[in-house]
C-alpha cells in the first residue's frame, strides 16, 4: 500500500509538471512572430516534459514535491513540544509523549486523534508532515494522561477513503498500459517504414541527382543524402535515420516543372539540414509518456505545421546558381498536386506507416504561400536561443519539484512573539519610508478656470477632467454655482488634457493650453461647452472579423483628442466630441493584437494640390480600422552605471504605414500610450504593430536624468531597445540688478550642443536671493543667457558640462534690454509682407574654438558643435516684428534668404528691415498616361523635388480619374517623380520654372539587386543601411541630393534590393548616415523597363581616414622637402612675393637642428608671429650632407658665400624685387644655443612691409579712372589666399584688361581695407577673392556674385564662374574686344 501511495503521488506530480511545461511552451510560442522561434519554444516545452520524470522523482525522494509526501508514523519514541493552556488560561510549552496509535485497518493510515480539554476539541494528525509546515496549536490538560481511548483512534475498513489506493492503482495501470500501446504502435510504424524503404529503388535520372547535389552544396549539407523513388508514394518524404534519405514518387520530375521540383527537393533537404528528425523523436517519446494529455497532441500538431511552413519558406526563398527564386504560385501548385495524389494514396500510405498532412493543413499552407511574402529564414534555430529555452525548460521541470518548499519557521529558542515583533517592526519601517517618500514636496501648478455655455453663461455642476501624460491619471473636479473650478496639478506629470462635460452629458468643451506651464504660475482655463457629435469606429482583424475590447481614440483640432473608447462584441466603439471640432486622425489598438490608424488631412507638401480632396471621417457611417498583428517592443532603460531605472515614463513618438503618406504623431495621444518601466527597467508595448518598417523614436522621461531619445529599427533590432540615461548636472549662479541687489523672478536659459542628436534646452527661475539652478545634460558645450522685455544680460559661453563633474557658478548682472524691430518688405515693391516666420539667432563659442575637444565623440563625427539661442515670430499685418535681447552678435533672417548680421552693445533700440524677394505662385496642369497604351492613369502619385535648395518648396499631388493633376507652385526648376497607384509604373521628368503644363508617360518600373561584401570582400556585410535614389542637383549644379528612393538594409547574406527604379535614369546607392559625414557610393544602376538587374557582389567602400593635423615635425619636414631645386624654388618665390607685396625669408639650416624646431614652432604656433606671416614668405633650404651642393648653388646665386654643412643656420631676406635685403646670423637671434623669439622678431622688424592707407589707394584709382575714362577693378585679397594669388597672376599675365580698367587691390593688411570692403560688399556673400567693377564715381556696376544664386565665384574656375566673369567684362568694357575677353576667360581655364 505504501508503494501504491508513493507511486500515485509521483504520478500526480509528474502530470502537473508535464502540463505546466507543455502549457508554458504553447503560451510562450504565441508571443513570437518568427516561425523558427515558435518551433524552438514548443521543442523546449517537450524537452521539459521529458526531463520532468527525473526531476519529480528527485523531488519526491526528497519529500519536497508539489504535494506533501504522506508517510506512516515513526515507531521510535520521541517527545514533542506542544502549546498548552493551564488552568488560568495562560499558554505554556509542555512536553508531550508520542501518541500511541492503535492498529489501523485503513490502507492510508491517516487516522485523526483528538486531544480534548473541555469544552473544546482540536483535531491533530498522527504525525507532523516532513516539510516544515506551521505547527498546530494543541490545547491539552497537562494533568490528564492521554490514552488511545481518549483519542478515539480506531478506524475500520469502512473508511470513506479506502477507495483511493484502488483508484490510484487503476489509473497508474491504465497510464502504463497506454504507454505500452503507444510504444508498440511506434515500433510497428518504424518497421513498416523500414520495409517500405527496402522496396524503393535508386533514382536513375541524372538531372534529378545533379539537382540534389547542387542543393546539398548550397545548403551546406555534408552528409551523403540518398535519393530513392517509389510507385506507391503519394508525396515526397524524408527519412533521416540511419542514413538521410529522400523518397520521391515515380515520374514526379515529369509531373512537376523544373522550378517546382527544385522547390520540392529543397523542402525535403531543409528537414535534413534542420535535423527535424530529433524533434520528431521527442514528439513521439512525449506522446508515449503522456498519451492521455491533449497538450501533447496540440503541441505535436502545431510543431508539425510549423515544421512544414518553415521548410516552405526555405524552399521559396532559396536560389540556385543563376536562377531566380521560386515563384510562390509555382510552389503552391506543386503542393496542390501533391494533395490530389494524397487522396488516391491515403490508405496505402497509412499501411506503410507514413502520415500525410491533413487537407485543412495543406490548404492553410497553400493560402499562406500565396498571400504572405515569405523571406529567407534560418535553416536551424539559433543555437543560443535553443540553448536558453532548453535551460529554461530544465529549470522549470526541476523547479516544479521544489516549488512548494515552505518558509523556515523561527528557531526553537526564539519565541513567536519576538518573531512577530520583528515582522511588525519591519512593516512599520517600510510604512515610515513610504510616508517619508510621499511627504517629499512636489512641484505643482495651479489651474483655475470657468466653464461657460454657448451664450457665455456659467455652467454649474460641469465635470472638468484633467488627464496627465501618465495613463489613468484623470483628476476630476466639479464647477461651483458660478461655473468656476480650480485644482493643483503636479508639473512632473507633464502634459495635461483638459476637457469638460455638462451635467447631463449632452455637451462638451475642450481646453487648448497655451504651452508649457511653469512652477508657481497660475493657468487660466476657459472652456466653452457645445453640443456633441458622435463618431463610430469598427475594429477588425486581418481576416475582417470584429475585435472586442479594442481601444479607439480620435485626434481633433490641435492639440485636442478624445477617447479612449472600448469596442463591443461587434468590434464597434462610439466616441463623443464637440460638434465644431474636426477629426484629424483615428487610431485603434489592442495589446497582443495590433495597432492601426487613419489620417484625415493631406500631407503638408500636398497643400497646393487643386484637384485632390482632403479625406474625411465618415460621420454618417462607420470607419473601419484593421489590426493585423504585433511585434512587441520592449524598452530597457538604465542609468550611466547600467542600473535599471524604474518608473520612467516612456512612449513611442512616430509610426508610419507604407500605404500612408504621413506619419502618426503620438504626441497627440501621449496620455494613452505613456507607460512606466518596472523594477527591471523594462516596459513593453504589446500593441506595437508588425507593419512598422522604418526607424521610430522612443522617448523616456525620468526626473533627474537626461531626456535621451532611443532609435528603434525593426529591420535590425529584434523587438528590444536599450536606452542609457545620463544624470543631469546642476548649473548654478546668481543674478543681480545693476545696483548689486538680488534679482528675483528672472529666467536664466541654458542651451547646449554636443555630438548627440538632441541639444539641451532648459531654464531656471531665480529665487528671492537671486540664485538660479538649471539641471542640464552632460557631454555638451553650453551657452547661458538672459533675455526679457525689460532686463537682459550678456551671454556666457565656452564651458562644457561633463558627467559627475561640478560646474563653476556663472553670475549675471542685468542691463536694460535692446529692442530689435523692423519690417519685412518686398524687395521689388517695398510693400510690407505679413505672416512671414522670422528667425533671430546668436551662437556661443564653438567646440572648435576650445584648445581641445573635451566631449566624447564615439562615431568620430565631423559636425560643427556650437550652442545657439534662437528667437522666432511671425511678421504682423504691416510686416512688423520686434525682439528684446541683450548684448551679442546676431543673425536676423527668413528661411531661404540672406541674413542681416549685427552686433548689439547696449543700445536701446536697433532698427533692421528685412528685404526679401517675393515669388508669386503659378499654376501647373499635368496629365499622366501609360507609355504603352496611351491611356490616362488615375490615382497616380506625383512627388516634386525643387532644385532651389535654399528653400523647401517640394510638393505633392494626385491625379483624378481622368489622369489630370493641378497644383499651385513656385516657378522653379523641378523634378517630378510619378508612379501609378500600384507603384508598378513610373517616370521622372524635369520641368522649368515657366512651364505651365506637362505630360508624363509612365513605363514599367525595374529593380536592381546585389550583395554587399565587407571592405576586403571576404564575407557578406549584413545589417548595413543603404540609401538609394536619383541625384537631383541644385539650380547652380553645385550641390546635390539623392531623391525618390528609400533607406534599405542588407539581409544576413548581405543582399539588398533597390526597387521601383524608373527606366533610363541613373540611380546611386550609398552608405546611409556615414558617421564621418562622407557620401560613399556602393553601386550605380540604370535599368530598362521591367528589368531585374543583378549587380553581383559589391565591396563596402572604404571610409576615408579623418583629417589629422600634421605635427610640428611633419610640418618641418614638409617645409624642407618642397618639390624642385633651390634655384627653381627661388624663381617661383620671387614671382609670388612681387605679386603679393611680401618678402622672401630663406632659411639655410639642417632640418634636425634644434634651432630650426624652435623657429618652426614660432612660425606655426605662436600668436605673436601672426602679423609677421603676412609679410614674409618662408623658403626652407636644407644644408645637410646629401643636399649641401644644391644649397651652395643657391648661395652662389645670391652671393652669400660658402655654406657650412655641419653648423649652418642663416636667415636671408629678399625684398619684393628679388634682391637680398639683409642676412640674419645665428648670433643675432640666438642666446647661446637656443633661438630667442624676441631677438628673432626684433631682427625681422626692419624688413616688414609698410602699410598703406586703403582709402587713399582707392581714391587714387578712382581719380585715374576719371582721367582716363576707365572703370576701376577692385579686388579684395589676402596673402594667405591661394585663389587670390591665382587671380592676380591671371591679370598680370593677360594685360589686355588695362584698356578699360584701373586695377586696385584691397589687401587685408592695408589700413581701413576690411571696413571699405564690408561697405562695398553689403549683403554679398562669399569669401575672398571678391571683386567688383566700379565707375569713376565709385558706383558698383558688377560684382563677382552671380545674379541668380548670389554665390561669389572667387577665382572663376568653374564654367558658370568663367561665364559670369565674361559677362562682367562685356557689360562694363568699352575698348576690349569680345575676342580679348574670351582669351582672358580662356586663360582662366588653363590656370
From TrEMBL:
Transmembrane as UniProt keyword: yes
Biased composition (Polar residues): 141-158
Ranges for region Disordered: 139-158, 409-446
PROSITE patterns, per the entry: THIOREDOXIN_2
Domain Thioredoxin residue range list: 1238-1370
Extent of Basic and acidic residues compositional bias: 410-441
Pfam families listed in its UniProt record: Peptidase_M56, Thioredoxin_7
TM spans (from-to): 6-29, 41-64, 163-188, 385-405
Keywords of the record: Membrane, Transmembrane, Transmembrane helix
Gene3D superfamilies according to UniProt: Carboxypeptidase-like, regulatory domain, Glutaredoxin, Metalloproteases ('zincins'), catalytic domain
Protein's name in the database: Thioredoxin domain-containing protein
Species annotation: Blastopirellula marina
Lineage: Bacteria, Pseudomonadati, Planctomycetota, Planctomycetia, Pirellulales
